[in-house]
Amino acid sequence: MTVISLMDRRLIGDVRMRVARPDNDTWNLHINNIRSKDTGYYQCSINTDPVQTKRIYLDVKSAATEIKKIQPMNDTTIHHVTETEGGNAILPCSFKSSATGYVQVVWMSSDMTLISIEDLRISDDERVSVRSPHKNVWNLHINNVRPKDTGYYRCSLINDPVKTEMVYLHVKDCSFANDDEHMSHFLMNTKMTVKSNPRL
């Protein structure tokens, strides 16, 4: 058994955890950015005579597991985004949700790796962020894109009913992009001369 806190002082090294005391008789354990491994029993004990103990079971549902159950419908919206290597890509996602209260939106990559929940980045890739400039909009930003970022990305609204949008990101290799630019420049600055054939 691991001791998490003593009074309102955190003893464990996990900085996601803290104890909040809204009043003198309450000691609430707060866990930020919860993960599947946090699932289990937690025990709160008060050193009285006799000792008072309360056990709480925390069940963390994996958003990735829920998403894997979803099969894309034929009418799923697919957006196409093209960006040159080294640029910043914005992958759009917007829903008109009829749900009231809490709305959960997740971004996942083509291999079903969880990227974000709401505007909280789950991925270790610091180039990635989610921004919500307006209500019901959750755009995925990828800075300094690379060719390996090319592929499908899935944005899903985990409410009832579930809604999903797909975005295909194509990252152009900068070497090919430069070749195209040089060719365009060459054609624009090349003077073409056409000679007529007197025999015709």
- What is the name of the CATH architecture of the largest domain? Sandwich
Note the main sheet.
Answer: 6 strands, mixed
Number of strands: 15
From the N-terminal CA to the C-terminal CA, the straight-line distance is 99 Å
Percent helix, as a range, is: 10-25%
Strand content: 35-45%
What is the topology, as strand order, of the major beta sheet?
A: 7-15-14-9-10-11
Radius of gyration: 27 Å
Protein name: Ig-like domain-containing protein
Domain Ig-like: 72-167
Could you walk me through the main structural features you see in this protein, from its secondary elements to its overall organization?
The protein has 200 residues and is mainly β. The protein has 2 domains: 5-58, Immunoglobulins (Immunoglobulin-like); 64-172, Immunoglobulins (Immunoglobulin-like, Sandwich). It has 2 helices and 15 strands. It has helices at residues 63-68, 174-188; strands at 5-6, 9-10, 17-20, 28-31, 40-46, 52-58, 77-84, 89-91, 105-109, 114-117, 120-121, 128-131, 139-142, 151-157, 163-172. It has a 6-stranded mixed β-sheet with strand order 7-15-14-9-10-11. The termini are far apart. One of its GO terms (cellular component) is neuron projection membrane.
